[in-house]
Write a structure and sequence with these properties.
mainly alpha
Length: 50
């Protein structure tokens, strides 16, 4: 089974393994797993295009 991170949950890994299916799914991550800075902490500067 191949899927994207949305499906990379513990429950999905267990269900697939119980059926003898090998999964190739990256683990599902939450905002806290991605670091301390969410997108709302950044400001786009149009003139500098950054």
């Amino acid at each position: 089974m191949v899927a994207d991170t949305k499906y990379g949950t513990y429950a999905n890994y267990v269900a697939l393994e119980q059926q003898g299916i090998r999964a190739s799914i990256p683990p599902h991550s939450t905002m806290s797993d991605r670091g301390d800075y969410s997108a709302d902490r950044f400001v786009y500067e149009f003139a500098a295009d950054r």
